Amino acid sequence: MAVKLETDLYPPIKAYFVSRGYEVRAEVRGCDLVALRPDEGEPVVVEMKKTFTLPLLLQGVDRQRTGASVWLAVERNRTKKGAHNQRFPELAALCGRLGLGLMTVTFYKTKEPVIEVWREPGPSGRAYAPSARGPAEGMLAAEEAFAAGYAAAAGGRKRAGAKPLLREFAGRSGDYNVGGSTGRKLVTAYRERAIRCALALACRGPLAPRQVQSLTDCPNAGALLRDNHYAWFRRVERGVYELTPEGRAGLREFAEVAAAWAARLEWAAGWENAVIANAAGSDATGKIRNGGTP
């Protein structure tokens, strides 16, 4: 059963890592999937494609700059014959030489998808042969030269490369995206901070940046309000901001995220009603300014 969209691969792969104790987030700094165990400092990155391609391989190598353990994941479509689609032992050996992991997802009409691991990431990642009875011939660990180079890169530079990825991962309250998505607005850590500020203005009305920061515990609330990247905020007077119609629309568009934060912030209870009331008040103010009746 062939998948139609790359995003179809995300749910079974996410379930695979969740079942092994990982927290998972999609679309983190361009990575399709990032997984992290609470007791580990090294993230795991998974790049997904419907088929194994050279761009996918190059993407995996590029993701190693983040300091993460990198997996490549593709569909294993049993209906396709020949070409590179069925040459997974050779592809796994190639991934092994580059320190990449390889897994496949097989979809069925009448049962759950099946994950097969062909090679674990790292210079000496363990090789598997899911569809073979004997040992995986040819799927050996990377050569000593590669292993030495990988070990050298795994020091301070590798940890430094992981910092932006870990910072973005930690800044997200949940997994609101789908790995492999294109053309969709993503819920990033920055957008979550903007949602928190929007909640404060929706529930409390116009506020100073320090008040928004106090309510939301958002350390850069002032800069976020001033930059106004999403056009959600408007300065009504010096040092005071209010929520715009675009901001109210943003809270409704990302209602799942707003609800998650409202559950953590006692003052944000009933935020949906506050957004509606805020909208009604804004409409009435607009009519008065235009010479009409509220």
Tell me what the structure shows:
This protein is of the alpha/beta class. It has two domains: 6-170, Trna Endonuclease, Chain: A, domain 1; 189-289, Orthogonal Bundle (Arc Repressor Mutant, subunit A). 42% of the residues lie in helices and 16% in strands. It has helices at residues 10-18, 54-63, 88-97, 144-153, 156-170, 189-204, 209-216, 221-227, 245-253, 255-264, 271-289, and strands at residues 23-28, 31-36, 44-49, 69-75, 101-106, 114-119, 233-237, 240-243. Helix 6 (189-204) packs across helix 9. The longest helix has 19 residues, at 271-289. It is elongated. The model is unreliable at 132-157 and 283-294 (pLDDT under 50).
Secondary structure blueprint with pairings:
Blueprint: H1 10-18, E1 23-28, E2 31-36, E3 44-49, H2 54-63, E4 69-75, H3 88-97, E5 101-106, E6 114-119, H4 144-153, H5 156-170, H6 189-204, H7 209-216, H8 221-227, E7 233-237, E8 240-243, H9 245-253, H10 255-264, H11 271-289
Helix pairs in contact: 6-7, 6-9, 6-10, 9-10, 9-11
Structural class call reads: alpha/beta
- Strand and helix order: HEEEHEHEEHHHHHEEHHH
Number of discrete domains: 2
Number of strands: 8
Task: Outline the low-pLDDT stretches.
Answer: 132-157, 283-294
Which strand-content bin applies to the residues? 15-25%
Biggest sheet descriptor: 6 strands, mixed
CATH class of the largest domain: Alpha Beta
Q: Report how far apart the termini are.
A: 58 Å
**How would the global form be characterised?**
elongated
- Counted by DSSP, the helix tally is 11
Task: Please name the CATH architecture of the largest domain.
Answer: 3-Layer(aba) Sandwich
What portion of residues is helical? Answer: 40-55%
Indicate the multimeric state.
single chain
Instruction: Determine the mean pLDDT.
Output: 83
CATH fold-level assignment of the largest domain: Trna Endonuclease, Chain: A, domain 1
Read across the widest sheet, the strand sequence of neighbours is: 1-2-3-4-5-6
* Alpha carbon gyration radius: 24 Å
